[in-house]
Amino acid sequence: MPAKSMDEIVSLCKRRGFVFQGSEVYGGLKGTYDFGPLGVELKKNIRQAWWRAMVYERDDIEGLECAHISHPLVWKYSGHEAGFFDLLQDCKKCKARLRSDHLVDGKCPNCGSTDLTEPRPFMLMMKTNIGPVDDGSSFAYLRPETAQGTYLNFKNVVDATARKLPFGICQHGKSFRNEITPRNFLFRQREFEQAEMQYFVQPGTDEDWWKKWREIRTAWWVEQGIPAEKLRFHPHDKLAHYAKMAGDIEYEFPWGFDEVEGIHDRQDFDLGSHTKNQDKYPIQAKVLKNTDSTVEMSYTDVMDGNKKFIPFVVETAMGLDRAFIALMMQAYTEETLPNGETRLVLKLKKHLAPVKVAVIPLKRNNEQIVTLAHQIKEDLLKTGIGRVMLEDSGNIGKAYRRHDEIGTPICITVDFESIEQSPATVTLRNRDTMAQERVAVADLPKYLKEFFL
Ligand code: GAP
Fold first, then answer.
1. What are phi and psi of 126, to 5 degrees?
2. Could you give the CA distance from residue 109 to residue 106 in angstroms, rounded to a whole number?
3. What is the pTM of this model?
4. Where in the chain are the domains?
5. DSSP 3-state assignment of 15?
6. How far apart are CA 157 and CA 139, in angstroms?
7. What are phi and psi of 387, to 5 degrees?
8. Beta carbons of 358 and 405 less than 8 angstroms apart
């Protein structure tokens, strides 16, 4: 059964070293988090599962990595400078700062008061100073989405790869938003990671691609371990400034269905906005008149008499941190054992598990046992199955409990039989079934490669 509350996940994350509050030593910085030893592994595995499905397993998508800080003109012509605002109101009674769209029937959700200030716009982009003098004249924005860097490099990628439409560009990395009300742990932060893909298509085929990508991305979530009935697609009532059609893949969190990934039909809004000589193209979306760009973001169709046009874009935009908590929540399982005890086990899919195998020497002061355990770890690392960890805390019960809680699919115990018998064997314990079997040490690499890869 998945976690019943975010508190259960926050507690597990802190206890076992997945996630810590950012700047904790100084009282914490709201809306920022640090990923601990297991958190970085889990996040890396989710990122890799996404990259593998989007880039390696397809033949129509390239990768890209852009700078986090970017020229102010990028965000002028993207429409963010004029349109990326939330409406902010203060509750005069309890002094809470609120997003207007988070009010409950016009009332403060904290104290129920209707005595609120008038709504005023609040810019979500963060600025940083560039250069040695901080007089406000030379600034850059920290990107609020990865997508714009991808649009700016559209021509570079086409020129370098000779890609033909339709094709996509994937990018993951940090984005920054000055959220008024960061909340729900990793769900709404001020610094977070996105995994976004921009798919460039012939105008007129965008609606079909939007539907296709909605299906492809929903199937990906199911493959990562989220049951289909815990997902739904929710079309946007209010469209972002760039979107013609948009909706969210939502996961059923303990507080209800909420967004984990957006699927947007951005048409020619972004390439059109950033293009030089806009007048040459029949741009569909309403874009700002661009007098600064140095590049025409167009595509030449050699199959259609070298016709030049601005492609349309369908975007898939996932929050990696939201994937992290959704997958942890879904995997969080409390089981009652036959002896009446409860066990907490993180039933992550094995490709996502932060540690794949724990090798546990039964006696940490027995040199032969410890040496064999080290040897097994070395041999398994060479198989490429992922992180293999030597767990020599000295208490087998505690070791199993810890590895159940962090989701390690296999524990290997090296005991007296392992060093006394020939050929040497060890005990393999399966996280989900708790079944134990003895396997010859020589067979471990093959056995575990089949299990994991
Ligand atoms: N490029 C389009 C774009 O950025 P978005 O719906 O604003 O669209 C995409 O963001 C995804 O990024 C969201 O579905 C969500 O998973 C994640 N995200 C957005 N704001 C976030 C925040 N403050 N904290 C954590 N994740 C966030």
1. -100, 145
2. 9
3. 0.96
4. 37-83+145-327, 355-452
5. helix
6. 28
7. -75, 125
8. no
**From CA 372, how far away is CA 370, in angstroms rounded?**
5
**pLDDT number for residue 241:** 82
The mean of the pLDDT values for the chain is 95
CA atoms within 13 A on the CB side of 117: 15
Residues present in the chain in total:
453
Contact 154, 200 (CB under 8 A): yes
CB distance 258 to 230 below 8 Å: no
pLDDT tens string 12-24: 999 999 999 999 9
Whole-number Å distance, alpha carbon 175 to ligand 1 midpoint, is 9
Please tell me the distance from the alpha carbon of residue 340 to that of residue 257, in angstroms, as a whole number: 33
Neighbour tally for 336: CB within 10 Å: 9
Radius of gyration in angstroms for the set of CA atoms belonging to the chain, rounded to a whole number: 26
Query: The domain 37-83+145-327: what is its CATH number?
Result: 3.30.930.10
How far, in Å, CA of 187 to CA of 257, rounded? 13
Encoded amino acid at 194, one letter: Q
Select from 80, 253, 259, 316 the residue to mutate for testing ligand 1; criterion: most ligand atoms less than 8 Å from CB.
259
pLDDT, greater one: 261 or 421: 261
C-alpha count within 13 angstroms, C-beta hemisphere, residue 423: 7
Tens digit of each residue's pLDDT (9 = 90 or more) over 66-123: 999 999 999 999 999 998 998 999 999 999 989 898 888 889 998 999 999 999 999 9
From the alpha carbon of 248, which atom of ligand 1 is closest?
14
* DSSP per residue, 398-424: HHHHHHHHHT-SEEEEE-HHHHHSSS-
How far is the C-alpha of 172 from the C-alpha of 318, rounded, in Å?
Answer: 9
- Calpha distance 84→71 (Å, rounded): 16
Q: Give the N- to C-terminal CA distance of the chain in Å, as an integer.
A: 27
Pocket of ligand 1 (CB under 6 A): 145, 147, 177, 179, 188-189, 192, 194, 196, 259-262, 315, 317-319, 321-322
Give 242-261 as a DSSP string. Answer: T-SEEEEEEEEETTEEEEEE
CB contact at 8 A, 143 and 175: yes
CA of 9 to the centre of ligand 1 (A): 21
What residues contact residue 274 under an 8 Å CB cut-off, 6+ apart? 74, 77, 78, 151, 152, 290, 293, 295, 297
CB neighbour class for 266 (10 Å; exposed up to 12, middle 13-18, buried from 19):
buried
Asked if domains 37-83+145-327 and 355-452 share a fold, the reply is no
Q: Which CATH class is domain 355-452?
A: alpha beta
The atom of ligand 1 lying closest to the CA of 188 is 24
Q: Could you give the CA distance from residue 221 to residue 49 in angstroms, rounded to a whole number? A: 10
